[in-house]
Write a structure and sequence with these properties.
One of its GO terms (molecular function) is ATP binding. The protein contains 25 helices and 26 strands. By secondary structure, the protein is α+β, with helices and mostly antiparallel strands. The strands form five sheets. A seven-stranded mixed sheet has the order 14-26-25-24-15-22-23, with helices on both faces. Strands 6-5-7-13-8-11 form a six-stranded antiparallel sheet, with no helix packed on it. The longest helix has about 35 residues.
Length: about 725
Amino acid sequence: MKDLHHHMAWTISGMDCPSCAKSIEKAVDRLPGIHAARISFARERLNTDFNPKEVSQDDIQKVVTGLGFGLTEVGDGSTNTVERKSSCCSSSQTVDQSSKASFTGDVNGHFDKLKAFLGGSTGKVLIAGVAFFIAVGLAQFNPVNARLYYSAAALIGLVPIFLNTLRAIRFGQYFGIQTLMTVAAIGALFLGEALEASMVLFLFLIGEALEQRAANKAREGVTLLLDLQPKVAHLVQGNHRQEISVEDLSVDDVIEVRPGERLPADGIVLNSMAVLDESALTGESIPRNRDVNEAAQAGSLVLEKLTTFRVTSEAGDNTLDRIIRLIEESEEHKAPVARFIDRFSSWYTPAMMGVSLLVAVIPPLLFNGVWEAWIYKALTLLIISCPCALVISVPAAVTSSLAASARRGLLIKGGAALELLSRAKTMAFDKTGTLTEGKPQVTDVVAQGDAAEMVRLTAAVERGSSHPLAEAVVRYAEDQGIDIPAVTDAQSITGKAAQGQVEGRNIAVGSTDYFAEQLAGDANIYAQAQELLAQGKTVVVVTVDKALAGILALRDEPRAEARDTLKQLQQLDIETIMLTGDNPKTGKALGGELGLAVKAGLMPQDKLREIDQLRSKGTVVMVGDGINDAPALKVADVGIAMGGGTDVALEAADIALMQNKLEDLPALIRRGRQTMLNIHQNVALALGLKGIFLLTTLFGVTGLWMAVLADTGATVLVTLNALRLLRSSSD
């Protein structure tokens, strides 16, 4: 008999990091009847496929809430609404009751907020911090009871971690980071190291709070993507116009989109020549002309005139929806980002606990050893195995490296990105706004007569237009110190040309296709136009009183530092490639100029395919700045966003270049390699010292005080070594 499959989606609250998501997935997946449990950490969404005859919704909910997370069924927006009725004769009583209800509601609301705050990561840090610093103050005035004070502070900090450990053990998560910290703290307390226990717990809670804050910022990227899609659409039915929810749109509906509004669904253009800004999807700043029956994608910005479309996508399945799903699915393709110490603890902690137990019981039971002596040795081993130095070895190096990078304007969102940077083999680049300036510039002026006069007349017609090419012409004229005259009777032939009267002359500016006849009449200018087009430039034609006056060439020029940056990366044995949505001719011209491989004409899903192919050669780094780059930034092992890019790209990326400098990329690679070398040194120091004192303890050479000294000494050495990253240069 075929299993029944039931799908349900839930919203989860309280996840601090991707490891939380994995814990929930594993716990839910253990339930009988669960076919699949998948979590999108970015959207805090749990999707489950299960057999309702074997497992119920309540069973799933109990597991998730039992782990300490909130769970709400997607689409469950029920609220308790109190309907209030009033009349003239009872208004004062109603107001009085309303005031009381409002006051009670405010008090309860504030209490709930306070409870949520104290139960959150920041609240836990605050409570543990206050307890720790109170203990420090009391210990200064009454040193005799210092251990008591620090023990109390440690227990306060340990409570939430210990409760999480119990929840994790209950659902099969025996040796995670919470268990590691619980064992370390209890061991330190048992051996009298209360100060160390309270300090380590306080620092651990700070790390958890910072990680949750970074996770919340990352989730905002998906929200920004969702905000690009309008909530309402203008439905056309015969002569009637109706505003409806985007969710109510169906395939073959006809909709109107006004200038300055975004297309709410994928569609087909129904009226002649739509001018669309598709930069949200392709990253290209130059608008595209879409004629009748050509496809347009959701999220495109309509320019210049009211445009009609026929919807071609189902609700929830347009281009923007698919990009969001790509971001969610890309989390499965990421390199593992579980913290190093959590992975290590999966065998280290139980192994050392087992060794300590064996040392305590086997010699007395089998070899007539003295119980007190061997228990003392076991406790000594336990403090030696206390992972304080290991716990701090990775984050100390990472924190130092992140702080040094932040001073350079490099925002790195965690140690996993640094680790992957150290192994980078390929760096892929978006074009517009990344390798180029992000806006077209006039590069060539070819005129029949006075070039400055032609530019002056052209700028007069183009002034007032929001088209990027028009703005580039006006900007060029202003930079040349040209006074731009007034224009009258200005007109726009959508997608083809602009014209107007300037000082009694009819000036027209348009595409080479629109003015093909005039252009063909002058062999010299025609040849130059073809040569400029071959260089990947956009060529516009200028006529005065219908006679050819000349041409202007425009292009989004490469950044001044691009060539040198790419050369440095290649010297670091990093292969470079450009992935762009621009046309192949433009991409090839720029790639040849900068000296890197090129793949052009790519949509977001095409970039993902290219990145997957590049991954076969090793770790891939993606550098971009646009919304269209967000999926690629997430799918790549490391995503780097330019600081001048969109908020979505910045939040989707692992690293942001806040000063928008390409030359920071080689420094990032060197920084990643330095950090990993430092981490390896730290781990070797921590484990090496523990190994030495493990042997000396078993042979009775060292005792408890030496174990404490070894553990403290390892922590100090690891910290000092990590601090070298603050002073080291990655230039």
